[in-house]
Amino acid sequence: MGLNSISQRLSLSKDPNFVNSRNYRSVKNSDGRNGEWTEEIEYLDESGSVIYSGKGLRSVEPGVDDHVMVGGIKKPFLNASAVAKIVEVVKRWKWGPELETQLDKLQFVPTMTHITQALKVVKDSDACLSLFRWARRQSWYLPNDECYVMLFDGLNQNRDFNGIQSLFDEMVGDSSNNGISSFTAYNRVIQYLAKAEKFEVSFCCFKKVQDSGCKIDVQTYNSLITLFLNKGLPSKAFEIYGSMEAAGCLLDGSTYELMIPSRAKSGRLDTAFKLFQEMKERIFWPGLSVFSSLVDSMGKAGRLDTSMKVYMEMQGYGLRSSATMYVSLIESYVKAGKLDAALRLWDEMKKAGFRPNFGLYTLIVESHAKSGKLDIAMSAFKDMEKAGFLPTPSTYSCLLEMHAATGQVDSAMKLYNSVTNAGLRPGLSTYTALLTLLANKKLVDVAAKMLLEMKAMGYSVDVSASDVLIVYIKDGSVDLALRWLRFMGSSGIRTNNFIIRQLFESCVKNGLYDSAKPLLETYVSSAAKVDLILYTSILAHLVRCQEEENEKRLMSILSATKHRAHSFMCGLFTGPEQRKQPVLSFVREFFQSIYYELEEGAARYFVNVLLNYLVLVGQINRARCVWKVAYENKLFPNAIVFDQHIAWSLDVRNLSVGAALLAVVHTLHRFRKRMLYYGAVPRRIKLVTGPTLKIVVAQMLSSVESPFEVSKVVLRAPGDSVMEWFKKPIVQQFLLNEIPSRSDILLHKLNTLFPSSAPEIRSLSPPKPLIARRAM
Fold first, then answer.
1. Within 13 A of 758's CA, how many CA atoms are on the CB side?
2. For a Cys-Cys bond, which of 133, 259, 454, 611 suits 659, CB 3.0-4.6 Å?
3. To 10 degrees, what angle do helices 620-632 and 596-616 make?
4. Start and end of every Smr domain (predicted)?
């Protein structure tokens, strides 16, 4: 190649900064001296004319020498010329072994400056990458941040993210081996991968860069946070945000727009609100999405004041509330029970031109209905229908049930007809509420029709019909209850034994004995067991009965119970020949059959009523036997107390009237025997009667001039006085058999002396004297 050709291709520069630092070298002989050239060399131009002639020069060794010889003068390669040569080779050979061969034959030693400048000229990413990788294998190679940036730019333009990842790994290796940080290139890679939504690769690169100690810029942090928030991975975004805070970096406006809603929706309300305040302090203008997320999340969390504050602040920014925000606010206030505020927002929403949706109408109607504001609920309900929305069965049910609960029969039935006319199937709760309302209003025929419609709808009506029956029973409407029971029977609807028993008890209580007996027979025939309490309650009605005809009916009912207590009652009134055992043994045998762990209370109730009855009919000896056995079986524990020589006492507070009278006489008889026969005399004797039995017992004892003094709840007397009193013959006769007969008691008003067989109910009116005062 001639000199002119070389001069035309390379523009020479005098700038010393571009001179290679390597020393010029010349060939040496074997003895170490510089080689000399003796031949005359002629330099010709293209036409063959001699341009220059002089001593010969040795050829330049490519890839080793960084100069050319012009005559005897060493001329360095200029950077521009070197770059141009590299670009020419790369553009021609592109890539592959041939390219590397041609680059190895370059007549100069390139530098990283040459490579970087060449990469700026060569646009082809594959060719650039080939040139770079050839340079990496050279001894003069040094990592260059700018070089990597250009390569990553080219790969990103070609969307070659696998190439980016591979080159990134090479760059990490270069940086660790040479101790050189590629700040710009590192961040550029992460940003490109994040924008391409390669979240796993980008996060991996982020961690590698972070571990290497390289600084990550704000744009990279924001691009990563944006990526993970858009991918629905807030936890990763928060992790990156934590690293960002530790590094002292701040979010940009667009990332605030993503970060605040994400924080709010994940329940990190304090952090979200802190970012919101920080955003405003940095003069970023919050968008509607930020306000909406805060209003919605704060409202759902019950922080209504903060939610409303953000809402008002949004209006101050001139932003118009969306329909979604109105719905969220209204729902929050409704769920918090603040219906007035919800209604104001409801009106504001409609004034703003938004049309409430189906769900919001339903919420307003049902919430106001359940709170008892039926006028507002019905107004919204009518607006809902005008808007073309068909209310759901639950909405109808809510309105109907609330009208039923307030006793508005007409409104409830009108809503029911609307449900059926709309082709909807009323729910079970709706039917139950209507039936309860109709039962309370005593509209038996309408309730019966409603029950049949309910049955036709496929519902099981046994429970609902029984509920109506219970309403009538509790209300004391026994005639309506019996009428409803007959309707149930004719319609094939059954009820349970518990309700049959309740209705039976109501019939007995109201004197409907003819209706009560068939109910009891139904109860017994259905394998239900009449317990001692039920039998005793019937016996209690017999005790208070004053008409012979009703007594016969009640005796018939007692017989229909088939309870063992009735067999005992019958045996008690028979003679010893038929019983084949004494009364006391017979009574003891019956009480031994009672399972006291379960029936102790029932047995105590039975003894009280039975003693009332036995005293009433004048069966004193039998009554004494019953009381004695009951006391032996500890049905009335601690009724009699012997406190040595200090005090003897009898407690009759838990006894019925008849039982109390009998217990007083029987116990005083025991005290008399103990004192007269054994000589044991206490300081005092007490009869603890309570306020209700005090007058009855005192009246009975005053007939025989007893020494007992009456106080508030106790009759007491000194032991010596009682001892003298016991010695009187009239007292002995009184204690043995002077309980009043049936005729005596009937003369003094049965209901006054025996107001109730239940021991907890007493009469406070004093009875008349039971027996005439006798002269000593």
1. 7
2. 611
3. 160
4. 650-726
